[in-house]
Hints:
The chain is α/β, with parallel strands linked by helices and 377 residues long. It has helices spanning 16-29, 66-75, 94-107, 127-130, 133-146, 169-181, 183-189, 204-214, 225-228, 235-242, 277-287, 322-334, 350-370; strands spanning 52-55, 80-83, 110-117, 151-155, 192-196, 219-224, 246-250, 253-258, 263-268, 293-295, 304-306.
Amino acid sequence: MKKTSESPSLLQSQLPRRSFLGSVAAMGAIGLTPELSSASQPTPMAKGKIKLGFDNFSIRALNWKAPQLIAYAKSLKVDTLLMSDLRVYESFEDGYLTKIKDLGKAAGIELHAGTGSICPTSGSYNEKRDGKAVDHARKLIRTAKKIGSNVARCYLGSRRDRRGDGGIYPHIEETVKVLKAVQSEAEDLGVKFAVENHAGDLQAWELVELIKAAGTSFVGATVDAGNATWTLEDPVENLRILGPHVLSAGIRDTALWETGRGAKAMWANMGQGVVDWEAYVKLFKEVCPKAPFVLEIISYKWANEAAFLEPDFWKPFPKARAHEFARYVALAKKGKPYKLPEGRPGGNGKEAEQAQQKFDLEQSVAYCKKELGLGLR
């Protein structure tokens, strides 16, 4: 696979037209030039059907920019593309972002905008790169508006933020302050923040409390099924709690199995873990039927052991709810250690990683379409 060139800095000033045409040229070089005809328009929402999409983090090793990602989304015949970081844009000038919006429309792809942490006290927040958290949140919603997204995905931080004085709760308060500081602008733009349960930072009920404290008029959730297992949750129960607030998603399967100290989780391709996807999709249609089923495939990386049989483990979870934990334990009892799927490319290095990520995403998209009946086309 051809390597992509190093992407320019977010702060590098470029003319919108030159940036846009350069990206389209790059798409042609990898055989992904989009058809920009007016005939390629979004398919109307079919009765009982859920939109299917993916998060660009699924193929992060490719380092593709927005036009390339849109073209790839079109080639996979998905409905939604979540660009979950601002580094996919070559410019933030209005002309460039408007062209990204038009490119998405021409390809029939619903675009969702996103970024990472917006919590200034989180260890995940990069002030050197992103500036003040309030300014970063404001940049996110303005970018979302320009590309035609009414969703702005973001998150608090990670499980590391559960440690320290007060645990996760002071960080929740700081995140709420940031959101409230840009509330009026978000509501004027018609953009809602979709805060994700991310990397072990928030259990579902804690995220609901954050959303309510900030204001449900402009804040909702990005439901992440894989991250649920990092906070001792069954993904189905996680969705049941977050469902009424869900605006977007980050979906992947999880291999979960018991260990001598508790349980270990390893993310996997769709259909190859322990999640009951039939039950999950049925509930998804009931609680958030207008939200897209966005895949964020991160398979066979970052095995996480929850040593819940050891007393010190529980210090970051002082308010954990026993009935939800019981569902997680029951899920772990069903599972077994993961194994790589047949046909997955092997090897190490950048090109191998690119091939593996494309394989994992494309296999998961195919599973969702064939086995779960997801997608409008």
